[in-house]
Structure prediction request, 134 residues.
Amino acid sequence: MSQNNEQLVKKAFIAMENAYAPYSNYHVGAALRLKNGVEIIGANIENASFGATCCAERNAIFQTYSQGYRKDDIESIAIVSDGKYLAGPCGICRQVLSELLPQDAPIILSNGKETMVTNINELLPLQFGIKDVL
Ligand code: THU
Prediction:
């Protein structure tokens, strides 16, 4: 793995420490790297009304857009968890990433034991998106 990707994974593990996950006890961290070098983090934040929970990667990418950045500003994202198995993003996050992340942006997954680099095009084939609605 490249040094940039390794550094981003480390940052995602630091972000994971901020997870609020009293129900699942499953902690997720995300770190998004912009082309200008800025890094934006997110963690999963749960809620007693389970459906109101927001995943780490969605928090990171929504924060990115909230700060005024857009798809073209994004270089890559690392998503990490403390799970037993290497996990990919959930279905809702794949849908969100498919609209807000560049198709070829590296998505680096890690659980500390295994690491994989993929992209949203691989994770979500035959995407439903803006082209279908507008
Ligand atoms: N979670 C994420 O943060 N990202 C994913 O892509 C999968 C699931 C969180 C949501 C919930 O807080 C916990 O992991 C268990 O589902």
User: Anything to note?
Assistant: The chain has one domain: 3-133. The longest strand covers residues 74-81.
